[in-house]
Specification:
The protein has 16 helices and 18 strands. The chain is of the alpha/beta class.
Length: 459
Amino acid sequence: MGKTLFDKIWDAHVVQNVPDGPTQLYIDRLYCHEVTSPQAFDGLRQRGLRCLRPKQIFCMPDHNTPTHDQDQPIADPVSKRQVDTLASNAAEFGLTHFPMGSKDNGIIHVVGPEKGLSLPGMTIVCGDSHTSTHGAVGAVAFGIGTSEVEMVLASQCILQQKPKAMRITVNGTLGEGVTAKDLALYLMAQITTSGATGYFVEYAGEAVRALSMEGRLTLCNLSIEMGARGGFIAPDETTFAYLCGREYAPKVEAWEKAVSYWQTLQSDADAVFDKELAFDAADIEPRITYGTNPGMGIGITEEIPLKGGVGFDKALAYMGFKPGQKLLGTKVDYVFLGACTNGRIEDFRAFASVVRGRTKAPDVVAWLVPGSWAVHKQIIEEGLDKVLQAAGFEIRQPGCSACLAMNDDKVPAGKLAVSTSNRNFEGRQGPGARTILASPLVAAAAAVTGVITDPRQFL
């Protein structure tokens, strides 16, 4: 019997199988940010340990970094302490550190792939659930807890129970105005936010293969919101073209050898998955959420269901919506473009394509936050900054920003935000804030009309 791609990568990294216990798995790349790493470094100090493979570890602040005036000291004392602590820990333990404001900085899940640090066939971990993003290059990538961060710092290994394997195949072609974000939101609504619990998901099918690398990164980013341990896509020519020439990608002869190996990273034709699901891309339209988890979503022209599962009534009460209500035309207060979900250059191109020649609605506060300084640079090189500025938008500096209420970019209580981020939990974007998750196209349409609007009328 053939092997799944997940089995191939996992098995190649097994150091030992603990009898009646977890697998000791070798980790190729550890990413550290400022929120989940301080206690891990303290643990090393208490045990008198150093990092086993410091060259495999990269540190970057992103959650607590302000998205303005990054050349000035961070005003919030808690944020400043966390960012400064990461810098001092990286220096003490001899780790590569991309500090705030440097050309290498940004959101770690954006910078990793764009610098060629995340490569096919790797095992990648970070103390952050959305580490699944890096699966887009054909890697087994997943989030871990702080105690596990310490484990990897010390041993470059981790103890893990092996997840089951699921394949989600999306057949056909996505329609006009339908993006990877819409595809992910659709899958969540179909299988629920717990439907992939205990599984590692491989995405396949014509619609997935047609996605750009940015789209694949978005799709894999949201795997965790289905309950999955992670999600990934087998590498192909799209992957190789994206990685070629990246700073940390293999060079010259090493590149040819790497690609020869990467081309073998496919599930065998006779591989058996623990679960298989298939969907038709033609069934998907631009989507929005209406509740307080990412699976509570509808097509943008649809009505909120008349009834739902546990927490349905509570979620609608929090959002101020009613069963059977259409959300088209609902007034919007804030729009956020960014996060590790949609902070890449393709997302800014999409947003600019809608607002070009139009003007931001006067009552909308818009935060446009690149996922990295490299994305910021490309926005300027492509002239997108001029398009956005002409429409009344300001481009902020890179960081996690309004994805989560851990920095200055908080949505006020009661205000409704259309957000390209990954979670719409109660208070996720600020205490009492109400969040509708959407694609960059839907966000742009809301930003220029001031209400929830089907972006297809602008395309």
